[in-house]
Amino acid sequence: DVSAHTLTLQDANICEVDLVYRHAVFTTSSEGLNIVLEGNNIVTGETGNDSSSGIYAMYGQVSITGTGSLTITSEHTAVRSGSGKDITISGDVTVKATSTNSRGIDSAGSILISNGAIVTAVAEGGPNSPAVQSSGSITVTGSTLSAESGSENAYGISAESLSITDSNVKSICTHNRGIYVIGRIDIAGDSDVYAKGGGDVGM
Predict the structure, then answer these.
(1) Which string of DSSP letters, residue by residue, matches 75-106?
(2) Cβ(37)–Cβ(69) under 8 Å?
(3) Are 49 and 73 in contact (CB under 8 A)?
(4) What are the residues whose beta carbons fall under 8 Å from the beta carbon of 80, sequence distance 6 or more?
(5) Angle at 175 between CA 173 and CA 180, to 5 degrees
(6) Within 10 Å of residue 134's Cβ, how many Cβ atoms?
């Protein structure tokens, strides 16, 4: 639905990229992109291109909802929002975002994960690449977030602040801290948080 800036994926396999920017799913709209999941879906960035993202809203937010699953793999950031906009993942969805040379999930705004979402983010390598990075806050409510970074000089999860309520959060980094937050970390309700760093503190 172009007018609603909505992309519905139903057992889709997207492996082609746009001809200009070379991303698999891409928009320059300030309204961003709403992705609705049905069934099992796959999005793959361009192989051999370390500038190619899986999902990228250059000037807008990214919202992922629905009742399905989504596996995103790319050499650059797997899921990315720009211009201070948020990434929201909510509902009965399972999302795995893997980058081979950059960040799994990278928001220029905040990241909100809620209402039973199961999210896994992996940064396999590349410099300064957290698995999950937010320029603002990360909020996880009633959901599961797993993050793993093998990048040097990076963290599993990196944000200005982190709020976890009734959720399971696990973050591992091979070389640095599992979780790095500049400001507050708030953990409430029935939450389980595990952070492990390599040669450094977990948090």
Answers:
(1) SS-SEEE-TT--EEEESS-EEEEEESSS-SEE
(2) yes
(3) no
(4) 53, 55, 56, 57, 62, 103, 105, 106, 107
(5) 55
(6) 26
**Which residues, listed in sequence order, are joined to residue 151 by a DSSP beta bridge?**
none
Q: Which residues of 161-174 are buried (b: 16+ CB within 10 A; e: fewer)?
A: bbbbbebbbbbbbb
* DSSP state, residue 60: S
User: pLDDT per residue over 159-181, tens digit each?
Assistant: 999 999 999 999 999 988 999 99
pLDDT band at 32 (very low <50, low <70, confident <90, very high): very high
Tokens read off for 93: 């969805």
Quick one: which of 46, 41, 45, 24 has its CA closest to 33? 24
201 SS3 class = coil
Q: Which two tokens stand for residue 54?
A: 């899986």
Which tokens sit at 154? Answer: 């990076």
CB contact set of 34 (below 8 Å; sequence gap of 6+): 4, 5, 6, 7, 63, 65
Whole-angstrom Cα distance, residue 111 to residue 140?
8
